[in-house]
Batch of 2 targets.
Target 1
Amino acid sequence: MVKLDYARLKNIRLEQDITQKELATATGVNLSTIKQIETGRSATDLENIEKLCAYLEVDINEIYHPDYHDTKVLCMLNNKGGCGKTSLCSGIATSMAELGLRILVIDGDGQRNLSSSFDMPRSEKNFGAAVLAEQDLNGYIQPTKFENIDIIVADVSMGTLDMALFTKISRENIVRSILRPVVERGYYDYILIDTNPNLSLLNFNIVNASNYVLIPAQPASWTAWRWCCNLSRVSNRTTRPCRWAASSSIATMPATA
Ligand SMILES: Nc1ncnc2c1ncn2[C@@H]1O[C@H](COP(=O)(O)OP(=O)(O)OP(=O)(O)O)[C@@H](O)[C@H]1O
Ligand SMILES: [Mg+2]
């Protein structure tokens, strides 16, 4: 599902043998606006979408889904331990949730620090179990006590997950494929994934499932050198494009904190 099924709208116009120019003249909607709507670049221009639907005699509810959220996946990554991945993940999640955005956090670290920070007990329905069974992650989501934040918890058994994944087919894309149904459901605005402090197969999986990668790093020489090396290693092995950003989390903490 998508917010606006613009391809369908275009097909209906073509089926009725109406040109974009004719539609513009008949509805009073600007020609360039029609072009933008039909290519999905203006999926929220409701007033004009309504005019087009009325003229083409299409029920707007068939092609427009206002509650659909264009879910983006963002992960925190750095194989250096203790640099602020989990703190950043929970901080971003709570700030976004306070803004009214729907958030799913996924704990990708067997230490369970993110799960604990949301006060979640151990569960059979954990991220590692889903990855191992290659099952749709929708069935592993649990609510937290915080409004707008759901979670998929980690389990300590995830420490040996990499060994179990090693012989699987397409082993670097398992998370991407089991997360896809959650993304396509369009319920969440952001899915935030915390990773473990390793260059693990699970982390490669998580990067391959992400639109954005955020690297918290202390701006000290060894740390910077380390993550530059590792960044090139990880980015060379990713199977899809994603955006990378680094944040100096620990250095920006107020001195009094
Ligand atoms: N901005 C910050 N400034 C100072 N200390 C911080 C900051 N963010 C986190 N910390 C502290 O640094 C420590 C490590 O943070 P955190 O657990 O988030 O790192 P991590 O990268 O997730 O660690 P790990 O690799 O073990 O999972 C914690 O004690 C946390 O309270
Ligand atoms: Mg952590």
Note: The radius of gyration is 22 Å.
Target 2
Amino acid sequence: MRPQDILLPTADGLCCKPGGFHIDPIRPVERALITHGHSDHARAGHGAVLATQETLDMMRLRYGENFAGSTQVISYGEELRLGDVKVKFRPAGHVLGSAQIAVTAKDTCIVASGDYKDAPDPTCAPFELVPCDVFITEATFGLPVFRHGDAALEVKKLLASVALFPERAHLVGAYSLGKAQRVIALLRKAGYDAPIYLHGAMEKITAYYQSRGIDLGELRPAMGMKKAALAGTITLAPPSATSDIWARRFPDPVTAFASGWMRVRARARQGGVELPLVISDHADWDGLTATIAATGAGEIWVTHGQEDALVHWCKTQGLRARPLDLVGYGDEEESEPQPRSEAEA
Ligand SMILES: [Zn+2]
């Protein structure tokens, strides 16, 4: 069977005709398989949704109980037959509950990896390598300039700054789903045991992580705190809030931002970020290329991000490769409703 007879890029997203479903569709479809809870992959309004328990819970948190006609849980490693294909979900190491979806028809296996990272993350199951014939990879950081390094060292930088400026507050911009909880877990791993403060927009999802057994230590809402009491503390907030009127409640805040984009200095400067922290939930260039090679796939489909360089690299390795030109995926926070400062003030 030709791979394109199994999975085909369409305007709605990746479509599996023989299985009767779409993967991470951007428009409402009859049956959707969802890789993870970020809003550019997990949208409301589908007839039926198949995903991990965590992804379904996150969709429920964000969109309410009736986000889909019906839902079905699939565990990592469990095999399901859908129409003429078999599907399996495997950990993607991106955020809690994130999965790669392996679709097998006859002898051909295609893995749609969604967003993934091969770096360690104390808040989710580690990325699992799935040998396959066709590997569909993201390319968010698909340029050789992107090398994320060790996230633990970035957290050390943050703690050094907190020690250096005990009279100032530290405001860390981080995406609400995944990144914020990972930064908190990394702070705890580094031995930081003071209470950590949260912007209201990340309280629910962070409490959900805790309810799934992720130990994040003592967390407090930043709202209602006296300005002086926030000196020497660390607060996590959505990136947009750190440059907002909301930030005025903090004493002389040091603005940090935890993102793979912080490798680009101009980007940090532009955003008024004083303390850039290179911490990403996506594979960097070395991670992408190492993963592609390790899957043993002879054919690589590249989607959302810097497709060109990665497609070119694949060809130099003797692999067949093409960009999928799927639209609608990218920076999750951009597609999230912005936190309302008025409600927070
Ligand atoms: Zn994502």
Note: The first strand starts at residue 8 and ends at 10.
